[in-house]
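Students often ask why inverse folding is considered easier than folding. One informal answer: many sequences map to the same fold, so there is more than one right answer. In these notes we will look at a single instance of the problem. The structure comes first.
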């Protein structure tokens, strides 16, 4: 809709959105509105009455300017009489419209003043909101300070509890470390006993180290392997000799059979030839001598076979003795492995207990040495961090105090800037109001000019209808309508003059015939039609010439004369209209923004009173918080002194903790040395087992089997170095019967290449598993499977349970 048009309410379109926004306030009740809103309602009622009056007057103007009056008579019946009265009514109505427009502008000014008051109230409310937010931020800062102080107190209490629990854990760790040292010393004693037993069995000097013992055992194993090779060779040779002896027996039997046949043949020949020649006797003697030689060879081979059998039996007995000594050594190795496993189990249990003590509901410590050390270091670091956090919190309190002061200064500067911006906004609003007034005045003037133009055009058309120029009015436009009316008036003037002259002549003649009068009227009518047609054609010719001139000027030089002036004027008016439109759009946007702010003020006005009460409450709360802050400052000072005292105590306790750490490291080194010796012992036992031909990968070989095999191996060697050795049965005579039975069942009675049955794990029921079940659960399986070959399990387990310190006669 154009800005110079009137809507149904009779107001210009530039004022329509503002009145529409004002009419929206009618929905609220009178009780829910404030004083300013009541004034808006009164203004609204006045605007409604004025709008109704304007609508009534507009209807009256439409009736007056309509083609037909309410009387029903056509306007062409008396145009000269109707036009002055209509003009008078129109002027009166126009004066009333102007007065109403001035009243409307006055009401608009009052409305703007009310809007200004609302804007000031909104700004005041915004300032109160900003102050409220600032006070809320200060309250939050005080609350945060109080909460941080409370957290510091809780943290200090938690640190004290953690320190006490750490002291208790340190005491328990000291007890466990002492127990570990005792277990390590026991393992060292058992290792030394095992080495002494091996030295005694091997007959070497006591000053030799484990490498010498391993070398000695290696030599024994090599000799054992060589003896086994010799035994295999002798066995093969014996079997070969047996085969040769068997073949010789068959040959001898065949020869004896042949000799018997020859003797029988010779006897037969002698019976037939009583007096045989001397050659036959000689042949018989030769055969007899050969038979005797063959019998001697058979006897010699039988003697050799018997000596080989005896040597084989001696070798087998030697191997059995060596296997018995190796079985005893295996029993010793198993005992050492069992003791080392017990020590590992105890160490693992110690680590698990330490890990359980150091663990918490949120942090689980793995039972490893590195994890325990890391947890202890972490606890020390936490103590240091808590002490540092107390100092940081004190510094933070000071920083927050400085920030509070800086925020107070910033809020003061912000208030000053806000007041300055409010003054600038008031100036801009005054300028905007002046521009809106100018635009409204320009719209009213433009609307008045357009209405005058429309009324003048209607009057000219009615005049053209009165002058019988309807078709010419429809064909020509507003530009040529005035010239056409002027030409038509000249024609009518000439016609009136001509008709007067013709009437004078008729009077002089004394009248004419009736046919001549009718022909004259017809001629006059035709003349009038011809003149009107000529006038119409002349107007059309002018319009065509004007249009051709305008089109040619626009196509070549841009036009000149009146058309160029009109185009230039139209162009300037268009530019001015565009600028006015842009200014009007900006003004409308500003008005819309101000209206939105006005609507916001309606909601903020209700909360302003509540915020005043809240500000009073906040001031009292701030006073209370200030007192609380002073109390907290005193408490923080006391906590600082207490923290310093605890830091001094913590330094002393850290010294104690460092001493305990040194002791724990010394204990750890001792445990590592014990583990190293235990590994050496296990490697020594595995090397002995491999040299004796046993399964070194299985831990179920008893030490008695290894010792028995070593004894048999040493006894089988013989010589001066081993002449002083006694059989294994002699030292076993003074031992317990259970140990002797275990020795006999696990050592001497074992086959040469017998392998112990696989140990079955009680947890997973799998042989040689890797589940690491503690030794207390596998002791039963050791007792059942700790035998070699077909020996009894109970004797072997009882033999391993005998401590070396209980029977000193064997060593």
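Output (designed amino acids):
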């Amino acid at each position: 809709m154009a800005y110079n048009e009137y809507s149904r309410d009779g107001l210009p379109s530039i004022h329509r959105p503002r009145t529409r926004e004002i009419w929206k306030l009618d929905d609220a009740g009178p009780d829910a509105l404030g004083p300013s809103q009541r004034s808006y309602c009164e203004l609204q009622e006045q605007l409604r009455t004025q709008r109704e009056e304007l609508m009534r007057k507009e209807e009256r103007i439409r009736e007056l300017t309509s083609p037909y009056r309410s009387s029903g008579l056509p306007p062409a019946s008396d145009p000269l009489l109707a036009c002055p009265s209509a003009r008078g009514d129109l002027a009166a109505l126009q004066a009333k419209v102007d007065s109403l427009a001035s009243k409307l502008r006055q009401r608009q000014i009052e409305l703007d003043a009310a809007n200004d008051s609302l804007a000031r109230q909104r700004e005041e409310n915004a300032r109160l909101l900003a102050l409220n937010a600032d006070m809320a931020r200060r309250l939050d800062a005080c609350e945060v300070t109080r909460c941080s102080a409370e957290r510091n107190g809780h943290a200090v209490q938690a640190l004290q509890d953690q320190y006490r629990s750490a002291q208790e854990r340190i005491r328990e760790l000291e007890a466990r470390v002492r127990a570990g040292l005792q277990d390590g010393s026991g393992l060292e004693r058992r290792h030394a006993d095992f080495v002494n037993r091996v030295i005694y069995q091997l007959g070497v000097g006591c000053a030799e180290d484990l490498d010498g013992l391993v070398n000695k055992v290696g030599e024994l194993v090599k000799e054992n392997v060589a003896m086994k090779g010799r035994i295999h060779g002798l066995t093969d040779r014996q079997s070969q000799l047996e085969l040769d002896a068997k073949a010789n027996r068959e040959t001898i039997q065949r020869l004896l059979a042949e000799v018997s046949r020859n003797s029988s043949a010779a006897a037969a020949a002698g019976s037939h030839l009583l007096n045989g020649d001397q050659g036959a006797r000689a042949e018989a003697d030769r055969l007899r001598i050969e038979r005797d030689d063959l019998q001697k060879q058979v006897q010699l081979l039988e003697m050799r076979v018997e000596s080989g059998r005896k040597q084989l039996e001696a070798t087998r007995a030697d191997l059995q003795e060596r296997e018995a000594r190796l079985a005893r050594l295996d029993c010793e190795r198993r005992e050492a492995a069992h003791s080392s496993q017990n020590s590992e189990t105890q160490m693992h249990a110690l680590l698990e207990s330490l890990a359980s003590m150091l663990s918490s509901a949120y942090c689980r410590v793995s039972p490893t040495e590195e994890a325990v050390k890391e947890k202890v270091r972490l606890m020390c670091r936490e103590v240091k961090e808590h002490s540092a956090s107390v100092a940081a919190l004190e510094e933070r309190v000071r920083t927050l105090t400085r920030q509070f002061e800086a925020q107070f200064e910033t809020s003061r500067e912000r208030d000053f800037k806000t007041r300055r911006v409010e003054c600038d906004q008031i100036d801009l609003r005054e300028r905007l109001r002046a521009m809106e007034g100018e635009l409204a005045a320009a719209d009213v003037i433009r609307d008045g000019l357009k209405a005058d133009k429309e009324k003048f055009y209607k009057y000219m058309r009615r005049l053209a209808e009165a002058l019988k120029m309807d078709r010419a009015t429809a064909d020509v436009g507003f530009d040529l309508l005035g010239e056409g009316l002027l030409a038509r008036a000249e024609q009518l003037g000439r016609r009136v003059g001509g008709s007067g002259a013709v009437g004078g002549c008729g009077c002089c003649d004394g009248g004419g015939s009736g046919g001549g009068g009718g022909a004259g009227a017809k001629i006059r009518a035709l003349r009038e039609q011809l003149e009107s047609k000529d006038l119409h054609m002349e107007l059309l010719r002018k319009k065509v010439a004007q249009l051709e001139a305008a089109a040619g000027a626009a196509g070549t030089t841009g036009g000149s004369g009146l058309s160029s002036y009109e185009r230039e004027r139209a162009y300037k008016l268009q530019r001015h209209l565009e600028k006015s439109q842009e200014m009007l759009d900006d003004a409308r946007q500003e008005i819309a923004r101000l209206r939105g702010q006005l609507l916001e003020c309606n909601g903020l006005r209700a909360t302003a009173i509540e915020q005043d009460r809240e500000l009073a409450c906040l001031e009292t709360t701030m006073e209370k918080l200030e007192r609380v802050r002073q109390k907290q400052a005193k408490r923080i000072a006391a906590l600082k002194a207490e923290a310093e005292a605890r830091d001094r105590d913590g330094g002393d306790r850290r010294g104690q903790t460092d001493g305990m750490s040194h002791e724990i490291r010394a204990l750890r080194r001792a445990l590592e040395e014990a583990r190293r010796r235990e590994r050496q012992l296990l490697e020594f036992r595995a090397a002995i087992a491999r040299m004796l031909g046993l399964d070194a990968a299985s831990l179920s070989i008893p030490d008695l089997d290894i010792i028995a095999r070593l004894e048999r191996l040493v006894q089988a060697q013989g010589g001066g170095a081993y002449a002083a050795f006694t059989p294994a049965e002699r030292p076993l005579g003074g031992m317990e019967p259970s140990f002797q039975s275990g020795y006999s069942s696990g050592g001497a009675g074992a086959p040469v290449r017998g392998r112990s049955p696989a140990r079955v794990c009680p947890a997973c029921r799998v042989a040689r598993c890797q589940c690491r079940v503690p030794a207390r659960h596998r002791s039963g399986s050791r007792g059942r499977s700790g035998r070699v070959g077909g020996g009894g399990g109970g004797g072997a387990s009882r033999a391993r349970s005998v401590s070396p310190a209980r029977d000193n006669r064997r060593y």
